[in-house]
Amino acid sequence: METTKNHFFSDLGVMLGRSMRHIFRSMDTIVTVTIMPIAMMLMFVYVLGGAIQAGTDNYVNYLLPGILLIAIASGISYTAYRLFIDVQRGIFERFHSMPVARSTVLWGHVLTSLVSNAISVVVIILVALIMGFRSSAGLLPWLAVAGMLALFTLALTWVAAIAGLSAKTVDGASAFSYPIIFLPFISSAFVPTESMPSVVRVFAENQPVTSIVEAIRALLSGQPVGNDIWVALAWCVGILFVAYIFAMRVYKKRV
């Protein structure tokens, strides 16, 4: 058992290193994923922020959680793209002909998504600090925020794996991310849901992004989190569980 585990983790390290080298050789992917949310944050804070009634004097504090989720949703589209390219080039078949633990090929892409999105999140938070973001949260709340964002990234990455493995074209592999990127706009990420029409408000208050945004916002501001964190965790774990099962089924059938 110990030999099998050591073999699995050594293979996983190789696959993670391979995927990370692809990332660092084409830094435009991280730059693109990072610049778009930063530009959006600049626009909302300095152009639209004065007209938005969010009930706070520091709008960047209110806005940041939603921007982080948009960055992650945008970043996972590249995971789907890289998986699609590997499938089309027969990379999986080549690795499977070697003495390599099969699941590590897929897990390498998943962990690469986690690392690359973490880099984007850190850069965006640093820019937000320059723009005036301030947090009274201690170490534990910050660790809770990091865990929430990591769980959200993993959940969406497994959704991306389904798209990347089952898509017929490059456009199809990445197009699935557009509705996910759009979800924060129909949530409490930019404005309170109380200002929305009744039908839109019902949807906004019962979709996963709102609970995740509210939980992160409360943690960063040092306020009581309430039930939002449990609802957010339930959404993330549920999506992760279902997406993982379907992704592994598609993976086994495809390769």
If you had to describe this structure to a student in words, what would you say it looks like?
It is a multi-pass membrane protein. It holds the Pfam family ABC2_membrane. This is Transport permease protein. Residues 28-254 form the ABC transmembrane type-2 domain. The protein has helices at residues 2-25, 28-48, 59-89, 91-96, 102-130, 139-166, 170-175, 177-182, 198-205, 208-221, 228-254. By secondary structure, the chain is mainly alpha-helical. The two termini are 26 Å apart.
Write out key terms for the chains shown.
mainly alpha, 255 residues, elongated, 78% helix, disordered N terminus
| Cα end-to-end separation | 26 Å
Q: What characterizes the major β-sheet? A: none
Summed up, the helix count is 11
Give the beta-strand count.
Answer: 0
Q: Could you list the spans in which at least 5 consecutive residues all have pLDDT below 50?
A: 1-5
Instruction: Quickly count the domains.
Output: 1
Give the overall shape, derived from the CA principal axes: elongated
Q: Give the structural class.
A: mainly alpha
- Overall residue-averaged pLDDT value: 83
H/E series: HHHHHHHHHHH
Q: Roughly how much helix do the residues carry, as a percent range?
A: over 70%
Q: What Rg do the Cα atoms give?
A: 19 Å
The percentage of residues in β strands lies in: under 5%
Keywords: Cell membrane, Membrane, Transmembrane, Transmembrane helix, Transport
Pfam families: ABC2_membrane (PF01061)
Membrane topology: Multi-pass membrane protein
Subcellular location: Cell membrane; Membrane
